[in-house]
Amino acid sequence: MDAMRIALTVADVDPRCTLFLDDNDRNIAAGKAMGLQTALVGKPLKSKGADYALENIHILKQAIPEIWFGGADVGDHKLIRTRGEINSIIAAAPPVGA
């Protein structure tokens, strides 16, 4: 969870507006504990803590269309960032040891 906390701090994002994808149930549970929106990849059924389940990453657009078309409201925030915003965050982030 420390790595997730560091990543969220460095990226300066609201966890409620951040989608975390992983194929491990424990990592999904950790992401949910951090307040992230979560998607379990590689399994047809959601596990405890997963907001979404994707059999494979190729169906992401169909399974979670709100991240592609205007964003999903989460309070007064949206679950979306533009490519420019993401590139700016990555460029400004200091290296973090894993």
UniProtKB/TrEMBL annotation:
Q: Which domain of life is it from?
A: Eukaryota
Q: Which SUPFAM superfamilies match?
A: HAD-like (SSF56784)
Q: Which InterPro entries match?
A: HAD-like_sf, HAD_sf
| Protein name (record) | Uncharacterized protein
